[in-house]
């Protein structure tokens, strides 16, 4: 069948982009919405086809998360238990010491993770924070794990410092459609996020950038988020976490109506089709999802999960439950 939803445009690399950007598939929000609107089986077939062209079809990456600096964040992201604006019972802490992080990385590796992601509840780290996290990155790399960090907005030179410490990925999510962003966050704007992403790219650190589904956005706005990700210049992110909102008591979104699970699966499929080479990570919300929906997400092209009993402050399926699910589905993991 002829593809009406897809367009291919060859991008001209910008003068300040080195090395030259590869040809990138560009997608309009309308074309992406048309993918969302496909009959479910057609969408899944398209996603599977793309997935099998670009990835080992039964392989899933395991990434372990650690909150290295929890709570007390001055931003007001309406979904987030770590914002100082909401009373969620999360205890604010200081940046973890390097030995404790090294031990957590060793445990993650022993449990089978190949990637270790450190999250900090900062709006933007200070110079001394970046130096301290660079130390943590060196410790994680010394254990033979890929290192990822998510620290908020980066200033000039920060991404280079983290790169020099060995950071593989920087996570910084666009989270939702630009037109919906102001309903969710008032303490920063979309351009702030894009500026940090450009700094990360400019330093040659791989980009991990995705969003949250189930915030009350429309299907069109979900398509708008995916369009932002798929059209990111000079190329789409290497890693795309798709989070399902975890409703946390005390946050403004605690009573958000449930999203239809098929809509979440569709979002994964559309991310896979529009960003074929990316790792698409089935991120927050797995604990609430059940095995059948997770299996559909893998079928839709998800090939990475957060692995370990905890996300940052909320729960995640335990390691034994995940191993059982991977076994049942015949999914394998890359050995570190
Ligand atoms: N402060 C940094 C930032 O915002 O970039 C890093 C940590 S922040 C917790 C990382 C990401 O976690 C957010 O961008 C959001 O996508 C996700 N997240 C936070 N709370 C969530 C929730 N309740 N449900 C799903 N995802 C959530
Ligand atoms: C991402 O996209 N999801 C992760 C990771 N990047 C840092 C965080 C999920 C957080 C879920 C809420 C919590 O546990 O606090
Ligand atoms: Fe702070 Fe990040 Fe939570 Fe927003 S998502 S409140 S920036 S920790």
Give an account of the 3D structure:
Helix 9 runs parallel beside helix 11 (291-299). Strand 2, helix 4 and strand 3 form a beta-alpha-beta unit. This protein has helices at 29-36, 40-54, 98-111, 127-142, 158-165, 178-184, 190-202, 219-230, 261-274, 286-289, 291-299, 319-329, and strands spanning 59-69, 115-120, 146-150, 169-171, 206-208, 211-213, 239-244, 279-282, 304-306, 332-333. Mean pLDDT is 92; it is low at 1-23. The chain is α/β, with parallel strands linked by helices. Strands 1, 2, 3, 4, 5, 6, 7, 8, 9 and 10 form a 10-stranded parallel sheet that branches. It binds S-adenosylmethionine, 6-(5-methyl-2-OXO-imidazolidin-4-yl)-hexanoic acid and iron/sulfur cluster (SF4). Residues 73, 75, 77, 80, 82-83, 121, 123, 152 line the site of iron/sulfur cluster.
What's the helix and strand layout?
Elements: H1 29-36, H2 40-54, E1 59-69, H3 98-111, E2 115-120, H4 127-142, E3 146-150, H5 158-165, E4 169-171, H6 178-184, H7 190-202, E5 206-208, E6 211-213, H8 219-230, E7 239-244, H9 261-274, E8 279-282, H10 286-289, H11 291-299, E9 304-306, H12 319-329, E10 332-333
This protein binds S-adenosylmethionine, 6-(5-methyl-2-OXO-imidazolidin-4-yl)-hexanoic acid and iron/sulfur cluster.
């Amino acid at each position: 069948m002829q593809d009406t939803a897809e367009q291919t445009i060859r991008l001209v690399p910008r003068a300040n982009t080195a090395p030259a950007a590869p040809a990138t598939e560009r997608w309009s929000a309308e074309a992406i919405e048309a993918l969302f609107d496909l009959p479910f089986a057609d969408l899944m077939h398209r996603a599977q086809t793309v997935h099998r062209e670009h990835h080992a079809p039964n392989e899933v990456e395991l990434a372990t998360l650690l909150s290295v600096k929890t709570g007390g964040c001055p931003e007001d992201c309406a979904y987030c238990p770590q914002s100082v604006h909401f009373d969620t019972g999360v205890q604010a802490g200081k940046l973890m010491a390097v030995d404790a992080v090294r031990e957590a990385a060793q445990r993650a590796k022993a449990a089978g993770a190949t990637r270790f992601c450190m999250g900090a509840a900062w709006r933007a780290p200070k110079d001394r924070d970046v130096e301290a996290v660079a130390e943590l990155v060196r410790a994680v790399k010394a254990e033979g794990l890929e290192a990822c960090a998510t620290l908020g907005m980066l200033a000039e030179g920060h991404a280079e410092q983290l790169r020099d410490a060995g950071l593989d990925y920087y996570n910084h999510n666009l989270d939702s459609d630009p037109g919906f962003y102001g309903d969710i966050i008032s303490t920063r704007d979309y351009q702030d996020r894009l500026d940090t992403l450009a700094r990360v790219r400019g330093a040659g650190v791989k980009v991990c950038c995705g969003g949250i589904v189930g915030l009350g956005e429309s299907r069109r706005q979900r398509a708008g988020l995916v369009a932002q990700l798929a059209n990111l210049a000079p190329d789409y992110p290497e890693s795309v976490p798709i989070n399902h909102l975890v409703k946390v008591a005390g946050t403004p979104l605690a009573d958000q109506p449930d999203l239809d699970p098929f809509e979440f699966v569709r979002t994964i499929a559309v991310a896979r089709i529009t960003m074929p080479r990316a790792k698409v990570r089935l991120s927050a919300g797995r604990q609430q999802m059940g095995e059948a929906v997770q299996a559909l997400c893998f079928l839709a092209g998800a090939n990475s999960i957060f692995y370990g009993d905890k996300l940052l402050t909320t729960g995640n399926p335990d390691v034994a439950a995940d191993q059982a699910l991977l076994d049942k589905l015949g999914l394998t993991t890359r050995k570190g």
